[in-house]
Structure formats: structure tokens, C-alpha cells
């Protein structure tokens, strides 16, 4: 980035109100400044450093959304979180091929033009990294409109043979992994059982919010498995392989594996599970003030099970039902808001979501005992001081 751009951004940051007034801020990414309506003010959380804004995404780095900036249904492509375990490959688009191999009737190979010529569909889907957590204010998150082809169409064309049990997705990014003192080159990969892979909603995505898939997010092709944690959405996808057993690579078998206490046939055991479907989760992320009216905003993510309610509790009060953004779809995030008559002083705000099956987002104390950085879905109380 040029010096020029940096100083221009600094200038924008310092003159938030002026540029808003001039209407000049529409295309400025949210990691620089929040989008606020005329006369609206962001109220800082007291549990969060005030200067929590993040720089732009960098290849091979981690970029997270300042969740106080969530004010719109779709996350701008520049704001959408980025996690890259093996750096950021640049696949040559002319020589790019997607191969379909293994236990199939027809092994297939597609150029980018072949994929672009296939039937396309669109889906709104939000997801988070399986390692998203409260110390990042749940910033490894985003929601976008994705466009691409149905994974099922590709698998049907290939024809899965009897004995084909698992569909493996390989990325074009390669890392060195040490396994018992031996270093091997491994592509980023994840797998899904055939029945899960054949869901109608699964996409091989070519576009994000109406633009070609950005390099950060997997150009030219990524898997998009709605309702599943981000790790399942293999980027820079180059090969789909059908095999007779579970794929056991790092991101299935060793990493993104949650260790939690469970009762197994009456025995209490520590159980390891690969991170798959998004756990039912909500969090308060943003409080704004317009005159003396306050508004609380938060998000819900889950595996697509319909919701019964999202509620907010302020201090020791009763749970109050929040309004869910009507643009929400089955696999999008669901933003929710509650108008709040705030009194001066320090307050604690917490949200909880309940699905139609009666599953309630647990408090930290109610959540299963867990030794793991994955699947952090407990209620997240926030504190704020009203002046
Ligand atoms: N090829 C490849 N795909 C990948 C990863 C990766 O490192 N390489 N990271 C996964 C993880 S852990 C997450 S959380 C999501 C992040 O997607 P995003 O950066 O587009 O938000 O991509 C997933 N797909
Ligand atoms: Mo992740």
C-alpha cells in the first residue's frame, strides 16, 4: 500500500464525522470506520479496547472483523474475516483445473470456463472460524451472498461408486507438516461423508457478493458448506476425491478437533470430534445511540435449524425478545436488534438464542466441559458504560 493511501486513511479516520457529513465514506471498508446513520453514535463497550480497529487482510495472515462495525446484512468482501493456514496461493487461471477422482464412474476435469458455463445458483451464507472466540469479540465471522455451482451436480456427473463413503476437498495451498519427526508436504484438505456432501445447498463458489471470488477467499473456486464452520469451506479448490473412508489429514484428524466431556453409553469420557456443524450461538456486538435512544445489535449463527427466539438480558432483568432482521435466510447470519431505554451507569448485556427444537444457547457454566480452542458458543456477556 502506498504512503499516500495510508495517510489518506489516517485522515479519514480522524475526520469521521466530517466525511460522514459529506457522504464520502460509503466505499470505505469498515475496518477503518463504522458506518453510522446521520446523528448516530457508536457507544464503546467497556470490556473492549476502544482502538480495536483492524488493518486490511494480508496474504498468509489472519484478519478479523471489528464486530462493532456489523451494521449490514452483507459483510463487504474487504471486511470479511480471513484465516489462511498455508499462506495464500495464486492459482494460474488459464491452466486451472478442478479434478474429480477416486471411487467414481467417470473421473472428471473442469477448466474455469467449464465451471462458469454450468448452472449457477446463489445462496446467502454466514460462517465463522471454528476457533472464533470472545477474546476476539467473535471477529472471525462474516456473511455474504455466494454464487456458484451445486456440488451435487458435479458429484452426480462423476457418479459415486458403491463403497464411496467420503468426499475429500483439496486446496491448492501446500504446507509442511511434521508427523512423528517426518516432514511431509500436505495440501489443505477437509472431507465430508457422501450424504452430507450431497446436500442441495452445498456450493462450489465462484463469486462473493457479486464479484469474482477474491484471492483471499479462494480464487477461483471454494467449497461452501452452509451451516458448517469455516474450516469446511476449502479454498483454492483443485481436487475432489471420493474414497472409502474418512480423510484423516491435519484439519480433520488433529487440528480443529474439539476435546470435550460427554457421557458415552453411561460412561463419562473425554470425546474428540472434528469441527463440523456450527453450534447454536449469538452475541451482542454493537450499541449505538441516536439522541437518547439506544439500540443493541447482535448476530446469530447456527447450522440452519430454524430459530424460536433471540433474547437479550440487561443487568439482572428479564429476557427481552429481540427483533430478527427480516433479510435473514436459513444459512445467513441473523442480525437482531433491541431498542433500549438506557439509564446512566455501567450495564451488562447478554444475548441467548433458542432454536425450534428447544435447544438454548448455554452460559459458559452450562456449556459442556471442554479443553479446546474450538467451538466457542457460550453466552457472551458484554459491559458498557452509559454516560
Ligand atoms: N485451502 C484452504 N482452505 C481453507 C483454509 C486454508 O487455510 N486453506 N482455511 C479454512 C478455515 S480454518 C477457515 S476459518 C476458512 C476461512 O475462510 P475465509 O478466510 O474466506 O473467511 O477457510 C477454510 N478454508
Ligand atoms: Mo478456521
Low-pLDDT residue intervals, each spanning 5 or more residues: 1-26
Strand content: 35-45%
Shape: globular
Oligomer: single chain
Alpha-beta content class: mainly beta
Fraction of residues in helix: 10-25%
Helical region count?
A: 6
Mean pLDDT: 91
Describe this structure in words.
The chain is mostly beta strands. It contains 6 helices and 21 strands. It has a 5-stranded antiparallel sheet with strand order 1-14-15-19-18, with no helix packed on it. A hairpin with a 2-residue loop joins strand 8 (203-208) and strand 9 (211-212). The longest helix is centred in the N-terminal third of the chain and has 12 residues, at 3-14. The chain binds the ligand Nc1nc2c(c(=O)[nH]1)N[C@H]1C(S)=C(S)[C@@H](COP(=O)(O)O)O[C@H]1N2 and molybdenum atom. The ligand Nc1nc2c(c(=O)[nH]1)N[C@H]1C(S)=C(S)[C@@H](COP(=O)(O)O)O[C@H]1N2 is lined by residues 80-86, 129, 142, 171, 173, 188, 217, 230-231, 233-236.
Q: What are the key terms here?
A:
387 residues; mainly beta; 6 helices; globular; disordered N terminus; binds ligand MTE; binds molybdenum atom
Question: What's a quick, concise take on this entry?
Answer:
This protein has 387 residues and is mainly β.
Topology (elements, then pairings):
Layout: H1 3-14, H2 16-22, E1 40-42, E2 98-102, E3 108-110, H3 112-117, E4 121-128, E5 141-150, H4 151-158, E6 166-179, E7 182-193, H5 194-197, E8 203-208, E9 211-212, E10 222-224, E11 237-243, H6 250-254, E12 257-264, E13 267-274, E14 281-290, E15 293-301, E16 307-314, E17 320-321, E18 323-324, E19 334-340, E20 345-355, E21 382-386
Parallel strand pairs: 2-11
Antiparallel strand pairs: 1-14, 2-3, 4-5, 5-8, 6-7, 6-11, 8-9, 8-10, 12-13, 14-15, 15-19, 16-17, 16-20, 18-19, 20-21
Bound molecules: the ligand Nc1nc2c(c(=O)[nH]1)N[C@H]1C(S)=C(S)[C@@H](COP(=O)(O)O)O[C@H]1N2 and molybdenum atom.
The site of molybdenum atom has 6 residues, from loops.
Amino acid at each position: 500500500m502506498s504512503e499516500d493511501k495510508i495517510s489518506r486513511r489516517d485522515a479519514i479516520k480522524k475526520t469521521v464525522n466530517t466525511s460522514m457529513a459529506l457522504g464520502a465514506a460509503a466505499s470505505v471498508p469498515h475496518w477503518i470506520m463504522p458506518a453510522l446513520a446521520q446523528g448516530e453514535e457508536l457507544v464503546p463497550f467497556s470490556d473492549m479496547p476502544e482502538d480495536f480497529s483492524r488493518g486490511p487482510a494480508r496474504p498468509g495472515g489472519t484478519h478479523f472483523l471489528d464486530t462493532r462495525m456489523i451494521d449490514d446484512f452483507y459483510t463487504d468482501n474487504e471486511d470479511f474475516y480471513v484465516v489462511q493456514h498455508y499462506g495464500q496461493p495464486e492459482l494460474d487461471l488459464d491452466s486451472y483445473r478442478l479434478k474429480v477422482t477416486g471411487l467414481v464412474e467417470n473421473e472428471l476435469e473442469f477448466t474455469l470456463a467449464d465451471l462458469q458455463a454450468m448452472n449457477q445458483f446463489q445462496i446467502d451464507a454466514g460462517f465463522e472460524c471454528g476457533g472464533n472466540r470472545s477474546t476476539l469479540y467473535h471477529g472471525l465471522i462474516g456473511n455474504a451472498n455466494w454464487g456458484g455451482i451445486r456440488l451435487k451436480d458435479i458429484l452426480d456427473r462423476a457418479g459415486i461408486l458403491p463403497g464411496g463413503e467420503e468426499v475429500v476437498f483439496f486446496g491448492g495451498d501446500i504446507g509442511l507438516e511434521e508427523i512423528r519427526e517426518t516432514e511431509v508436504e500436505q495440501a489443505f484438505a477437509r472431507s465430508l461423508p457422501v450424504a452430507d456432501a450431497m446436500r442441495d445447498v452445498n456450493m462450489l463458489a465462484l463469486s462473493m457478493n457479486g464479484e469474482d471470488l477474491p484471492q483471499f477467499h479462494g480464487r477461483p473456486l471454494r467449497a461452501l458448506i452452509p451451516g458448517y464452520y469455516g474450516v469446511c469451506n476449502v479454498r483454492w479448490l483443485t481436487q475432489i476425491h471420493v474414497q472409502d473412508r474418512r480423510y484423516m489429514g491435519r484439519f480433520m484428524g488433529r487440528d480443529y478437533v474439539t476435546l470435550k466431556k460427554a457421557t458415552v453409553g453411561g460412561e463419562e469420557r473425554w470425546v474428540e470430534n472434528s469441527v463440523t456443524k456450527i453450534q447454536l450461538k449469538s452475541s451482542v456486538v454493537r450499541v449505538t445511540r441516536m439522541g437518547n435512544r439506544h439500540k443493541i445489535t447482535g448476530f446469530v449463527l447456527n447450522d440452519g435449524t430454524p430459530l424460536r427466539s433471540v433474547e437479550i438480558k440487561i443487568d439482572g432483568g428479564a429476557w427481552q425478545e429481540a427483533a430478527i432482521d427480516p433479510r435473514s435466510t436459513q444459512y445467513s447470519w441473523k442480525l437482531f436488534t433491541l431498542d433500549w431505554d438506557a439509564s446512566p451507569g455501567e450495564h451488562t448485556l447478554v444475548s441467548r438464542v433458542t432454536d425450534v427444537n428447544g435447544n438454548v444457547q448455554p452460559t459458559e457454566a452450562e456449556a459442556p466441559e471442554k479443553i479446546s480452542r474450538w467451538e466457542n458458543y457460550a453466552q457472551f456477556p458484554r459491559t458498557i458504560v452509559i454516560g
